[in-house]
Amino acid sequence: MSPAVLQGFFCAHSAISCIFHDRWIAVFFCWYKIISMQPHPVTQLLHKYAPAFHPVVNFEPGKDKLLPMDFSENNQELTATIYSHIDAFTRYIEQLLQANNSRYGIGGYNERRVIYAASTHFDDTDEPRRLHLGVDIWGPAGTPVYAFMGGSIHSFAFNDQPGDYGATLILLHQLDGFPFYTLYGHISQRDISNLGAGQYFSRGQEIAHLGAPHENGRWPPHLHFQVILDMELKEGDYPGVCKYSEREKYLQNCPDPDLILQMNQYITKK
């Protein structure tokens, strides 16, 4: 066989190999994308067991009103003069709830917020963190918080930097053998004063209270409630706000807390 024929053969073989190689890569990435889009087993289990969950805060559907809270750039009423000063921000929340005859304000999951510009806690060097990963329930300090199902204490901490969680509790749960976590931020410092890792809370047990600004990271009283699939070896803390460029990663690890709260269906439109 002449050198020219051999060269042609190897060129043809290489071309065919490249075609099959590229097709296998395309198939792999297509498969990976399909798999990554599938709901996590915990998300499916939260749907399944939702009717059995205890309310996280006291709420009577049909009687109590829920007000949606918007802390994105779409809210033109909420200026930096308000959210940069704790007293003004607290009055803003209280007046909104009173004017709308609402027991709680609620919202924030997957919301790109402007209010984090008030604290350097969210100003990472390359890109500030602005995307909220939990649901906030705004109400009076001292409002009781309950375990929606049984769970043991994973960790707790007093994250006292301005803009942070303040007093924080993280519980470990299991559904059909699958572990996951719930984080309770901005609670009262006394709620974590006599706790121990591994301590068990039963469904419906009072576990915390909405903290006042001096103990909750300098925020108007509210509960930050977040679901976490993987704690990534963290204890007493987990990001409740992420960079927008990391949105997909964190939303996959922190599914919608309303799967547990089941409160969005009762939101009153402004």
Strand order of the largest sheet: 1-2-5-12-9-8-7-10
The mean pLDDT is 88
Along the chain, the helix and strand elements come as HHEHHEEEEEEEEEEEEHH
The amount of helix comes to 25-40%
In the CATH hierarchy, what is the architecture of the largest domain at level 2?
Answer: Distorted Sandwich
Overall 3D shape: globular
Query: Are there runs of 5+ residues with pLDDT below 50, and where?
Result: 27-35
Number of continuous helical runs: 6
Structural class by sheet pairing and helices: alpha+beta
Can you identify the CATH class of the largest domain? Mainly Beta
Q: How far do the termini sit from each other?
A: 83 Å
The fraction of residues assigned to DSSP E strands is: 15-25%
Question: How would you explain this protein's 3D organization?
Answer:
The protein is of the alpha+beta class and 270 residues long. The chain folds into two domains: 1-38; 42-266, Glucose Permease (Domain IIA). It has helices at 3-37, 41-49, 80-83, 86-99, 247-253, 258-261; strands spanning 66-68, 104-107, 111-112, 129-132, 135-138, 144-146, 151-159, 166-175, 178-187, 200-201, 206-209, 222-228, 241-243. The strands form three sheets. Strands 1-2-5-12-9-8-7-10 form an eight-stranded mixed β-sheet. Strands 3-4-13 form a three-stranded antiparallel β-sheet, with no helix packed on it. The chain is globular and about 50 Å long.
